[in-house]
Write a structure and sequence with these properties.
homodimer; alpha/beta; 11 helices; 9 strands; 41% helix
Chain lengths: 321, 321
């Protein structure tokens, strides 16, 4: 089934919200729905839409997979509490790290996270809650890239011919699937979410797992988490579409205290883009890059080398893996 | 034994040349000496010094280890022919690639090259030539970094307590060991070498092997050779101290013809430096970086991502491995 795109310029946010809330309410009926909130603009908009449509019939969870950024769980719970939305944190770090153990292939990493999320952690929650509906923030770009075989998003099933009801035991509702990122931002703003949310830069489904090349371990996630915090602090005022730190598996020679140190390399990417379909590296001033490097090599344990990605998308993608 | 440094400003090139030529002639006496020319400023200066001191009693070889840059062997032979120096090319690619097979550790790669060079290829030449002396272009920075344990140069033995006479069967003469790179350039100029040689940027002993992270194969050397040619063409007029392309082992996601391509990443380094002890990334214009990237992703097979190194030395080193 062809998805009918709604462009940001053609979108009427309030009408869209009313229509989607009606649709969600009609679909769920007397039942209970469930959704996982990551704090990104997509899942935040879906949570607000679901809350508007279903009130307390929507149960919202934040799955702490151990792959999130610094302080994220606490910040998200406190933001949504202001809107009267209760978000329950589910601690599932060990399950995810166990599932990721020994895996180096990016597609297999995504698959391990998908399986752990849907079959194990979320499947259990759905069974216990009695919910038959899952609200999800899939957008049109996710569908395009998955169908094209560029990247396997963790939340696109129907387009790949997989029936989630059959496989996972529940029906998925995707109210944002006709929109691209710019449209979702307008909807999120119209839903009353703060600018820090509706203008928040994209963050991948597999979270910091997508920022570690090679096997994912708690130590590597800790390293890239610190590097991510540095990049996000330093580039917050850059006006860029998205910025990130990537921990490489390759090691490079460095010098520490006059001695050789075969250390870590962090790659920084900072993108100018409208809708993530095409992107180019932001032309950051070298003074700013110097400052970033100085913090990286002093604050992130083991880092001796920092690079800046200078490739456009295509042939690059926004994320490294 | 402490080496007495001669700084570039304290150096009198013509006196230095006369003195070193006398020393070499006195040491070698009626014997025959041998040297390996790589075409870099150090080995070119040593070749000219040796030729001045010994004439036809010096045999000069270019060892083609399969790790050199595009067209290097031919260019070097034709340059020295102009000075009446006959350079013999020794084809040894297969031996080096065989020795490098399966090795990923940078120190072990250097060691494999050292052993193949001195014990196998060069040892054989020395035995056949009857030469008892090897002229070599070691400079003070090589000694410093090897002794400090930062990097294992392939040509520093005495300082590590290794007697090359005992181990390899010949005595090593190192006429440039009191100089740093800036001093060597003045000596090379005074020896009549062209600017393209005396101002030539440094290139590592292990050649393109130092520009491949992980196992070295003929295919990877071919890839980094093309990337190196692109970087050297594009940055020739940059005025930088040294510039290079590094092929990573890590693979990253890219897009080719609308499909996912799990491809190669090239890291570009371009250094501002006086003498290689300290260095900083050259502040190349983004227009220039864009042009470099465009060539990399179209001319170098499999490349989907290019980064620019933005770290200073220290904590980085000039070369990646």
């Amino acid at each position: 089934m062809e998805i009918q795109e709604i462009t940001a310029s053609g979108l009427k946010p309030q009408e869209f919200i009313q229509e989607k809330a009606r649709e969600i309410a009609a679909t769920v009926g007397d039942g209970v729905a469930i959704n996982a909130l990551s704090g990104g603009v997509d899942s935040s908009a879906v949570t607000m839409l679901g809350h508007k449509a279903l009130g307390s019939k929507l149960k919202t969870y934040f799955i702490n997979n151990g792959l999130m950024r610094k302080d994220e769980p606490e910040q998200i719970v406190s933001l949504f509490a202001k809107f009267g939305v209760k978000v329950e944190i589910v601690e599932a770090q060990e399950k995810f790290f166990q599932a990721l153990k020994g895996i180096t292939d990016p597609e297999e990493k995504r698959e391990a996270i998908t399986q752990t999320f849907y079959k194990d952690v979320f499947g259990k929650l759905v069974r216990e809650s009695g919910a038959k509906y899952l609200l999800q923030g899939t957008i049109l770009t996710d569908v395009d890239e998955t169908v094209a075989g560029i990247k396997r998003q963790h939340n696109v099933f129907a387009q790949l011919g997989i029936d989630p009801q059959e496989v996972f035991g529940y029906k998925i509702i995707e109210p944002l699937v006709q929109l691209r990122k710019d449209g979702v931002r307008r909807v999120a703003e119209a839903l009353g979410l703060p600018k820090s949310t509706f203008n928040r830069m994209p963050f991948p489904g597999p979270a910091l797992c997508a920022r570690v090349i090679g096997e994912v371990t708690p130590e590597k996630i800790n390293t890239v988490r610190i590097a991510t915090a540095v990049v996000e602090e330093e580039l917050a005022s850059s006006g860029a579409f998205q910025y990130m730190a990537i921990l490489h598996q390759d090691r490079v020679t460095g010098i520490r205290d006059g001695k050789r140190d075969f250390g870590l390399q962090i790659e920084i990417r900072c993108w100018d883009s409208i809708d993530a379909r095409n992107a180019g590296p932001t032309r950051l001033a070298y003074e700013q890059l110097d400052k970033l490097v100085k913090r990286m090599v002093t604050e992130v344990p083991g880092v001796v080398s920092v690079t800046y990605n200078i490739t456009a998308k295509p042939p690059s993608t926004m994320e490294a893996i």
